[in-house]
Write a structure and sequence with these properties.
Layout: H1 2-60, H2 67-73, E1 80-87, H3 98-107, H4 129-137, E2 141-146, E3 152-161, H5 164-170, E4 176-185, H6 187-238, H7 253-288, E5 292-296, E6 302-305, H8 307-313, H9 317-323, H10 332-341, E7 345-349, E8 352-362, E9 368-377, H11 379-393, H12 403-420, E10 424-431, H13 434-441, H14 443-458, E11 466-471, E12 474-480, H15 484-500, E13 502-503, E14 506-507, E15 510-517, H16 525-541, E16 547-549
Parallel strand pairs: 15-16
Antiparallel strand pairs: 1-4, 2-3, 3-4, 5-6, 5-9, 7-8, 8-9, 10-12, 10-15, 11-12, 13-14
Amino acid sequence: MFKRIGHKLILTFAGVSAAGLVILVLFYTDQQQKSLFEQNEQMMRRVAHSVIQGLETVMLAGYADIAQDYAANLQNVKDIVDFRISRIDGNQAFLDNETILDVNRRKQEELFEARDEEASHRILAPEDAEFRQAIASMQITRKYTTSESGENFLTFIAPIENKEDCQECHGSSSKVRGVVKITTSLQAVEAAVGSSRQQAYLMAGPFLLLIILATGFMVKRTIVSPIHRVTTAMTSVAAGDLSMHVPVLGRDEISSMAKSFNRMSDQLRSTYDGLAEERDKLTTLILSAHDGMVVTDRKGKIVLTNPSAAEILNKSADDIFTDGFNKLFDDPQIIEYAIEKKDYVELRRDGRVLQILASTIQNQEQAVIGSAALIRDVTTEMKLQQELQHLATTDALTGWFNRRHLDTSLENELIRSKRYGHEMSIIMFDVDHFKQFNDRYGHDMGDRVLQLIAETIKGVIRGLDIPCRYGGEEFVIILPETDYSCAAAVAERVRVAVEQASIDDLSVTISVGLASYPRHPAQTHQQFIEAADKALYEAKAAGRNCLRSAS
C-alpha cells in the first residue's frame, strides 16, 4: 500500500510539473513562432521594396526593355517560389504590347519596339481581396496559403506607385502602375520553429526528471519510509511476531501511530505467546504433511485442510470448504464407504491412484465432535512397483519374460494342470547356427535377429500364452490349457513364421522341441524343460529347421 501512495504522490507532482512545463514550452514556442513569422514577413517586405526600387531604377534609367529580364532573374532568388509583376488589371506584365503601344502613343514616337509574339497570363483575379486592398491602400498586403501536398506559402502583393517621374510615360489616371507578387515557401521558417520546439522539449525533459527525482526523494523520506516501517511491523504482527516494535521518529502523526501500535503489541504478546506456540506446532504438522488432511467440526463443516489436500484433490482450498466433507470426491458414497470400512480405500481418479482413510472422531462421552479424512496419492509408488515388477520379470532385449518368470509360471501352470487334470504344453526352440551368424555379421545383428524372432512369434501365439527367453538364443513358450495336437500346430506355425521372416535380406531358421503334459509325465517343471530340451536337440540332429516332440 505504501508503494502505491508514494507512486500516486510522485505521479501527481510529476503530472503537475509536466503540465506546467508543457504549457511553458507551448507558450515559448508559440511566441518563438510568432517572432519568426514576423521576422520572415519583415524580410519579405524589404525584399518587395527592394524589388520595386530596382524596377523603378531600371525603368527611369531608360532601360525598360530589360525590365522583363530583371523580373525573370528574380525567379532564381533563394526561397522565392514565385515572382511576378502584374498590371492593375491582374494580367502579368511584359508579355504583350499593351504598355509599349500606350507609352509610344504618349511620347508620340517609337521609343520601344513592339514584341513579335504576345501572350496573356492572369496571375491575380480582380476580385482577389488582398489584390484590391493593395491597390486601394497602396500598401503591401500578405496572405498565407497551403498547397494540396500540405506545404505552406506566404504571398506578398506590393503595389508599384505611379510616381511623378513615371507619369510622363504612363499617365496620371491611376496612382498605381501595377503590383509585384512574391511567393515564398515557409519550410525554412517552420523548420526553425520545429527545431526551437524540439530544443525546448529537450531542455524540459531533464528538468522534469530532476523534479521527479527530488519529489520522489522527499516523498520516500517523509511519507513512504515511515509508512513502510509501520506496515512492515503490522505484517509481522499479523504473522504472529508480537515482539515487533515500530521505531518512533519525530513528533508527527505517524510517530503517534507508531507509539499506539507498540503499546498494543506489548499487551497482546503476553496472552498470545502460548497460543502461538501451540498453533505453530499444529501448523507445522499439517502444512508439512505430504498426505492430504481434511477435518470437520461436530456439524460437519470443514474447519481445516492443508495444501496437500488441495493438490491431491485438484481443488482450491476455497472449493474444499464450499463443497463440504461428503463431496470431497465426485461420489459422496466414497467417503461414506471409507468411514464404514475403517481402513484404507483405494480410488483411481484422473489417472492417479489414491488411498483414503476416513473416520468420525468421538470424545470420551462417545459424542461425535467431528470427522477427519487422510488422503494419500500413491500413484508414483504404484508405478514404481509396476516398473520394478516389469524389470524383474522381463528380458530387456526381446521384451519376453525372463528365466525367473519362466520358472515361476511353469511351476504354477504344471501344479494347476495336475490339480484340475488339465493338459498343457511347452515349446522350446533356439536359432540355428546362431554362433556362426554372430561371428559373421556381428553381435548387434544377432541382437536384431533375436528381436525380430520375438516380435514375429508374438503375432502367432495367443494372448494367454507365456513367451519367455530361456537364455542366449533359446526360448520357451508356455501354452496353458493346450493338448499335444494343438501345441504341435502352434509350434509348426512358429517355425514357419520365423522361416518366412528376414532381416536385411538374411533368413534365419529355428529348431523346435515340444513337450506336453500329461503325455510326458513330468513331476517337476525342471523335468518338463529337460524333456522339451531333449526334443530340441533331436530336431537339430535331424537337420535343423524342424519340429520334434518329447517321447
